[in-house]
Amino acid sequence: MLLHAGLPLEWVGLATAVIGIKAGAVVYTAGWRRYRRKLPGRFTGTQLAAFVGGLVSLWAAIASPLDKAADKFLSAHMVQHILLLTVAPALLLLGHPLLPLLRGLPEVLRRTIAPFFLRGPLRRAGRALAHPLVALLLSSVVLWVWHLPGLFQLALRVPAVHLAEHASFFVSGLLFWYPVVQPWPSRPRWPSGAMIPYLLTADVMNTVLAAVLTFSDRVLYPAYEFQSRTGAATALSDQVLAGVIMWVPMSLAYLIPAALLTMRMLSPARRQWANAKGTAHP
Fold first, then answer.
1. Do 31 and 101 form a contact (C-beta atoms < 8 A)?
2. What does the domain layout of the chain look like in residue ranges?
């Protein structure tokens, strides 16, 4: 699980994550069913499948054999990061999770928790962090800082740091994808067209880091060379593979939504709607 990890923290963290994932599935499904009866056009099987897919991706990242493989191979660790930064957050948000999660809770607990999420300081803090500029900056900083060799290897050695790394990837991923997915019933802070340069900027940040890993002529994280005992050449090849994994799938995760948004903006129906709106209010 973690290099030189203390067994108690390792297992407590894993058990907490698995219990949380299962609880999230049960609570969301209960809330989704209730909203499905009231709003069948809003909550379809697509939202349920997306949310469950996000939970499965989260489980694969932190509780499947991939987590153990990430101790020996940087390429496996990079797949883990992609799941935490991109796949799991985007799928969870596509499930429009806030209201189903609240509605699925027992009534007493829901009345206690709901005010914190729907109004007050916590809601204001969430809105501030999910602002596109803040979310983009935060996700970029998290991505780069945790891949600095010293901090990356510290996370491999110290379980608490490793848990903090994974948590920050997941939280920053949720904040980054929130303006793009715009889960109901939230309202967009920026027009959808602004999400195109937003996504392209994130892709540039990712591409530069991926290029550093891919084209480096030395092993950037010697812990993998020591742990796998395969030698510098094999560790360097694995590092190149990790860079390619970061480069291609992560770029597609940014470029495909950007392309879809572009096609939506350029579609004839969209232009006709914009023209009609403009002529209606001279």
1. yes
2. 7-264
